[in-house]
Amino acid sequence: MKSLFLIALILVSFGLAAAQTGQVPIVSREFGYQDWTHKNLEGEGKTNLREFAAGKKLVMVVYWMAWCPDWRLDASFVQQLHEKYGDKGLGIIGVGQYDTLGNMRAHVSRFGLTFPMVYESDSRAARDQTQHYRQRREAGDTRIWGTPLYVFLEPKALEPKSEVLSRNTDLVIGELRREDTERYIREKLGLADDAAPGSQSP
Predict the structure, then answer these.
(1) DSSP, res 132
(2) Distance from chain centroid for Cα 31
(3) pLDDT higher than 50, residue 15
(4) CA atoms of 56 and 158, how far apart (whole Å)
(5) How many other CB atoms are found less than 10 A from the CB of residue 29?
(6) What is the mean pLDDT of residues 119-126?
(7) What is the pLDDT of residue 194?
């Protein structure tokens, strides 16, 4: 009986650790982040990442799952970034993973997410077959499901006419550090000389 209790405790602890990674910094990783074309979550058609990035100063690719607790903590903040910087050169695009279309659409509606959304997979069984899975492993992400995952791209620095968009890529492998993320975005958008997030005028 005691052994069963210990096994159960270990499994619960492992599950919590796998589900929540906490806030983590932006890191730079050397790997070939590839272009993609995925189906739009709402409506018909598909979106190509390189085409989406054209004309923007910074692109933030957000890999998410509706049932991921860390992503749910970040969702409203990411929407705030979209509203605050979307007209200043920031393009945010979400890539839904490992859930039904109905659940993903309900999640988008619940959190009031208005930035563009596509999806790569619509089943948990597809996890090991996705580009998301392969690319995050190349970047050193050892989590079971790998969301949220944020990829930052500077369109002017993308490799031209190549399947690989970036070979040295800034990432957040887990929940965003909010002040650090906003400071990074402002710098990339050329807004670093303005008042920093949370600062007060003298």
Answers:
(1) H
(2) 17
(3) no
(4) 12
(5) 18
(6) 97
(7) 55
Closest Cα to residue 117, out of 35, 38, 41, 39? 41
What are the tokens at 200? Answer: 């007060």
Residue 113 burial (10 A CB sphere; 0-12, 13-18, 19+): buried
Q: How far is CA 191 from the centre of its chain?
A: 22
Tokens for 159?
């490799």
Residue 160 neighbours by CB under 8 Å, 6+ apart: none
Q: Give the DSSP H/E element, type plus range, for residue 131.
A: helix 131-138
Q: Band the pLDDT of 193: cuts 50, 70, 90.
A: low
Q: Which two tokens stand for residue 176?
A: 């965003």
pLDDT tens digits along 59-112: 999 999 999 999 999 999 999 999 999 999 999 999 999 999 999 999 999 999
Contacts of 145 (CB under 8 A, 6+ apart): 18, 65, 68, 97, 98, 127
